[in-house]
Amino acid sequence: MTPGNSGGPPTGATIGAEPPDGRTLIADDFPAGTHSLKVREVAHVFGAPSDRARYIGKIMGGTRVAWRRVVAPDVDESRSSHRPPRCAAWVEILPNGWLCKTLLVPSPEEPKGVRQPVVKVGQPTPDDYFKVMVDDTKAFKSEDDVRADVVDKLVSTKVMLVGTSVVHVDDTPYLKTDHGLIEAASLAKFWPSDFEGIVLAAHPAVAFPFAWVFFERGARKAPVYAVPDSSGGPVRAASRREIVSFGEEQNGFVHIGDGEWVERKYVRVARLTAPPPGVTESAQWIDVDRDEQVLVAYQGTKPVFVTLVSTGGRKDPTPLATYQVRAKAATTPMDGDPSIPNHYEVSAVPWAVRFAKGFFIHGAYWHDGFGGARSHGCVNVSPKDAAFLFDWIAPPVPDGWSEVEVPLGSGAVVRIRDREHPTPPLFDYSREEPWNVALAQ
User: Fold this and answer.
1) Which one, out of 7, 204, 286, 375, has a CA that is 20 to 30 A from the CA of 100?
2) Would you tell me how many other CB atoms lie within 10 Å of the CB of residue 142?
3) Does residue 403 register a pLDDT over 60?
4) How far apart are CA 114 and CA 15, in angstroms?
5) 72 touches 26 (CB < 8 A)
6) Is 36 exposed, middle or buried (0-12, 13-18, 19+ CB in 10 A)?
7) Distance between CA atoms of 27 and 29, rounded to whole angstroms?
8) To the nearest 10°, the Cα dihedral for 360, 41, 3, 89?
């Protein structure tokens, strides 16, 4: 049989294509009428037909892919490692990458993948999330373990987890979570923020500079004065995240409208800025102003999107530098230093765009403080903003894939700056260990 399938290759298949690196091309032996290959389980996709290659993404089980060709493993590689190859045949899938043939099942259905993360209609996030309210809360593996008090692990109040459904064990409600069964009374549900930034194509009247009024939820509203002086009393109170013009500054006040002044500490200013050196007219890049807690996404010199963010707080400030996007993950777990007792653990962080090891622009479902610095170093954005940026930032994540890696030099620029460091240096990626290289051991 020729590569592809005997009943006609799927879209994009290359009949008679030369195998890479002179490897032997293998007949695919898939049944007649095979129109796609279904992925058995979640798997890493490699950039070359070798389990020593760098992985370029992650694909979900159940995804049906088209393919181009099947090749034999590298014989020289097997000899050098003194072991038989783990994979007897490699399949080049579309749109790109390689999977071991054992991970694929022939299917008569057309190629199809489900866009990740999966979000139910009307929901702002992919999952329901909960905070642990009591330290040393018990987590169990099963209902029988609950009855026998066989504890799988203890979780702290620094754990945020995904919950799916409630079960009753002897009339006591327990929540099924990604940490096990936990008594519902020990958990509190998060209600993610509905804040969203501005897609400028849909709001052409927006004029820079402008500002958001910012104060923490529950704090008193920002008083607005008729003059840049508070002695005469306020004329009104500005609403949280009210959008205002940004004019003259005087005596610690900002002119935000006709006969209206507000203290400078209450505003977060969005300004346009020049791109970093080397950014072309068509290139995507992102500017994060750490002083103002404002993010502006650009296409060359044209602003595309603007929003409020939460960068790292005083203990863990987001490092100033000019970065590149290195990966995108539909969801990813995050945690703190495991050597620290009761370190934080956050489940299924959605729409995560990595620009350095341990640093992401991502959705935050656990707070609504966008406009104030409060993260552990990442750039927090609201779930709606995270979804927009995840889709906008190249490269796209193929349907059915949950992660893509971005080669160094091809990702969008992410500049983290402040007023004292308006043009921070390029981040040195040679300092990062090759942590995403598949281990051959």
Assistant:
1) 7
2) 13
3) yes
4) 27
5) yes
6) buried
7) 6
8) 90
Answer whether 282's CB lies under 8 Å from 221's CB: no
Is residue 117 reached through a cis peptide bond, with omega within 30 degrees of 0 on the bond before it?
Answer: yes
Residue 380, CA atoms < 13 Å, CB-side half-sphere: 25
Per-residue burial over 74-94, b if 16 or more Cβ lie within 10 Å, else e, is beebeeeeeeebebebbbbbb
Give backbone dihedrals phi and psi of 325, rounded to 5 degrees, phi first.
-65, 130
386-389, long-range: CB < 8 A, 24+ apart: 386/350, 386/351, 386/352, 386/361, 386/362, 387/119, 387/350, 387/351, 387/363, 388/196, 388/197, 388/199, 388/305, 389/286, 389/297, 389/305, 389/351, 389/353, 389/361
Task: Give per-residue pLDDT as tens, 301-352.
Answer: 999 999 999 999 999 999 999 999 999 999 999 987 776 766 789 999 999 9
**pLDDT range class, residue 80, cuts 50, 70, 90:** low
Contacts of 175 (CB under 8 A, 6+ apart): 130, 163, 164, 165, 166, 181, 182, 183, 184, 187
Phi, psi of 144, deg, nearest 5: -60, -40
- 119 burial class (0-12, 13-18, 19+ CB within 10 angstroms)? middle
DSSP string, 356-412: ETTEEEEE-SS---TTS--BSSSEEE-HHHHHHHHHHSSSPPPTTEEEEE--TTTSP
- Locate tokens 């993260």: which residue? 375
